[in-house]
Amino acid sequence: MNVWMDDEAGPVVRPYALTRGRTRPSGETFDLIALVSAVREGGSGPEQEAILRAAQSPISVADLAVELDLPVGVVQVILGDMRDHGLISVTSQVGSRPSERILKEVINGLRAL
Amino acid sequence: MDSGLSEDPVALKILIAGGFGVGKTTLVGSISEIKPLKTEEVLSDRGIGVDDLDGVEGKTTTTVAMDFGRITIRDGLVVYLFGTPGQERFWFMWDELSYGALGAVVIADTRRLTDCFPSIDYFEQRGTPFVVAVNCFDGVPSHSIEDVKIALDLEDHVPVLMCDVRRRASAKEVMITLVEHSLRTLTTAL
């Protein structure tokens, strides 16, 4: 039985089974670099619990997907549910231009790599 | 959660585009730690020339890995790199990726320059600042930057530079050139 359940076999549960077939989060979608912070405990299911643990300090949606080893689309749907239940807060600067100061900091930071 | 105490964390997004096999993964890996980010792509019949992207949700999707890297400038300031999906039939994913992006690196290979046309068109149309990095593969006769600029019909202000995406120093120079270009775009637009 176990021979069918290695990494190459893929997940035992199809990813979107976790979202009950939904491919879009309720409400506004989350950008890949939106930062997620845990607000309170009480996640339902192992994925929500894992997200709350990972988001003790702000973490990006993309990093969460890596952490949970789930497709981004699935994580976005789960995050939508969690936002609806007030478990997380999400901040995104996407859409607002970064300041000149930040960009200069990035340039200097890249030079120092 | 303690946003009154310190500055809010800042996350920036840079896209790495270019034709299939041009060195996107290598560039991300040269300058950052690559992480295995999974995303979904639509399975379609390869025999059909043009994909109709209407009703995409009804099609079967498959999970694929996407190039994703992270450069931590300092605590609370992180630059994220995303490789754009290789094939142009996944345009719908580009829109989400490029929304709010600081800029894009288009990697070009002079042996098949046309491969990067769709990326250039896309970023020009969206007004996303971009630079063209010409990846110099071993033993390939080098073209002058001016030649590449003319061949790609680029506007004068678009930076073009030669690079070797395998080398960290070269990858760094590409990224710095892009952020400097974004900064110029930002300050002239104001």
From TrEMBL, chain A:
Q: Which domain of life is it from?
A: Bacteria
PANTHER family, per this entry? DUF742 DOMAIN-CONTAINING PROTEIN (PTHR36221:SF1)
Name under which the protein is recorded: Putative Rossmann fold nucleotide-binding protein DprA/Smf involved in DNA uptake
UniProtKB/TrEMBL annotation, chain B:
Q: Which Pfam families match?
A: ATP_bind_1
The GO terms this record gives for MF are: GTP binding; hydrolase activity
InterPro entries, per database record: Gliding_Motility_GTPase, Gpn, P-loop_NTPase
Give TM segment ranges: none
Keyword list (alphabetical) reads: GTP-binding, Hydrolase, Nucleotide-binding, Receptor
Ligase listed as a keyword:
no
Which family is this protein grouped under? Belongs to the GPN-loop GTPase family.
Protein name (record): Signal recognition particle receptor subunit beta
